[in-house]
Design a protein that fits this description.
This protein is an alpha+beta fold. Helices cover 33% and strands 25% of the residues.
Length: 146
């Protein structure tokens, strides 16, 4: 055997494979929808939460506007965080995509009901044409303190 092959074999026996280091998560409800992505992925001490929209069990965006959608999205995120024994306090970065950026203050009025100071780092932008015609989409990163 060549030296390179022995080094590679040693690496794979000593270190867990990358696939074992990545934990994928999708709720039973999300799995039924058969989307081509995971709701969240844990890689070492970081949880990557995919963009969440206010999609009801019927597959449609819930009605009621940005405030109602914001509560739905943030509660959904809370459920994902809870699955990993995390909370909103463990979130360190969010990306907010809002269909109508003029509704940003309305989103913020809901956001501060879930997050406390010091708030996570955050970016926001107006986006034309979010998934399923949602008013907003939110993705976040959380940290495992282990």
């Amino acid at each position: 055997m060549s030296k390179k092959v022995l080094i590679l074999l040693t690496f794979f026996f000593i270190n867990p494979s990358v696939a074992e280091e990545i934990e994928h998560y999708s709720s039973a409800e999300a799995l039924k929808k058969d989307y081509p992505f995971s709701q969240a992925i844990r890689v070492e001490n970081i949880l990557y939460i995919s963009g969440i929209v206010a999609q009801g069990t019927d597959g449609e965006i819930i009605k009621g506007g940005i405030i109602k959608e914001s509560h739905f999205v943030l509660k959904s995120m809370g459920e994902i965080l809870a699955h990993f024994d995390l909370g909103y306090k463990d979130v360190f970065k969010c990306l907010v995509m809002i269909d109508d950026i003029a509704e940003w203050p309305d989103f913020n009025s809901v956001y501060i009901q879930y997050f406390e100071k010091p708030y996570p780092a955050r970016s926001a932008f107006g986006a034309d044409g979010l998934a399923l015609e949602a008013s907003l989409e939110l993705e976040c990163l959380a940290y495992f303190k282990d």
